[in-house]
Write a structure and sequence with these properties.
- The chain has helices spanning 32-52, 61-86, 89-94, 109-127, 131-138, 142-156, 180-199, 208-224, 244-266, and strands spanning 2-3, 10-14, 17-19, 23-25, 28-31, 170-172, 175-177.
- It has 274 residues and is mostly helical.
- The strands form three sheets. Strands 1-6-7 form a three-stranded mixed beta sheet, with no helix packed on it.
- α7 runs antiparallel to α8.
């Protein structure tokens, strides 16, 4: 077993800085959680640029830059609002300004997904692209960021799993626990990326990449929830094992499977390739 050493969530502290006319400000704290999100956006941008350079791609570098900007706004607003409404209502009521302190943690994937969907729809309409083609092009991009975000959760010491005696457990304050954040970093990050990147390496029917993304993420998240401790203010929703994460992932599994079947039945060519 491993011992969790409670790493400092702050990567760098700057200041306090003396601003003329305002006085000292700070210290400004650069947290690992925020760095992980930045790394995710940069990885998504680099991957999208790489795909756009492929022969036959209908995407340009300018399209990619705008796409990542739209997605960044969508995931931040959607992820934060989703967490506050689904998991952090009490914190929001007690301290309304906590909604803007995203560097302290508290981002919900399902809320971020809704935010990104809205952002992608707006992007597609502004660029005259088919909405599903935009969804399909974007499917490989979030996985690295999802994995990095879970590593940020691990550094913050949050979202631990249930007590266990498996050899790779982490002893947290005297209790051996599943490192559920690392499970999610592996499944929702690395494994999800490998599957979707491989699947989209050649043209697939329109809607198939989006369906596969929803199906895989939903299955991975649903599975990890069995060993992850639910938020204290929510607990188990039913049968002493159903969690909010599973409840939100189940529609993704159903929708993803249905989209895959529909995609291959229609067999429409993707507009992302000439």
């Amino acid at each position: 077993m491993f011992v969790y050493t409670h790493p400092d969530p702050v990567a760098l502290a700057i200041g306090p800085v003396n601003v003329p006319g305002y006085g000292p400000i700070g210290p400004l704290l650069l947290r690992w959680y925020g760095i992980m999100y930045l790394a995710g956006f940069l990885a998504g941008w680099w991957l999208a640029r790489r795909r756009a350079r492929r022969s036959g791609s209908t995407w340009t570098a300018a399209n990619v830059d705008d796409l990542i900007f739209y997605c960044a706004i969508g995931v931040i607003i959607g992820g934060r609002l989703g967490w506050m409404l689904l998991y952090g209502t009490e914190r929001l009521l007690a301290d309304p300004l906590s909604i803007v302190r995203i560097w302290e943690g508290g981002m919900a994937f399902h809320g971020g997904l809704v935010g990104v969907i809205v952002a992608l729809v707006l992007f597609a309409r502004s660029r005259g692209k088919h909405i599903v083609d935009v969804f399909d092009f974007a499917t490989p991009l979030p996985a690295i960021g999802l994995g990095a975000g879970r590593i940020g959760n691990f550094i913050n010491g949050e979202l631990w799993g249930k007590p266990t005696d498996v050899p790779w457990a982490f002893v947290v304050d005297g209790v051996a626990r599943h490192p559920s954040q690392l499970y999610e970093a592996l499944l929702e990050g690395l494994v999800l990326f490998v599957i979707i990147w491989w699947f989209t390496a050649r043209p697939r029917p329109r809607l198939a990449p989006s369906g596969l993304f929803l199906l895989c993420y939903g299955l991975f998240r649903f599975a990890v929830e069995f060993v992850r401790i639910p938020d204290e203010n929510r607990g188990y929703l039913a049968f002493d094992w159903v969690t909010m994460g599973q409840l939100l992932s189940l529609p993704m599994i159903v929708a993803g499977a249905w989209m895959l079947v529909l995609a291959y039945r229609r067999n429409e060519p993707s507009g992302n390739h000439t």
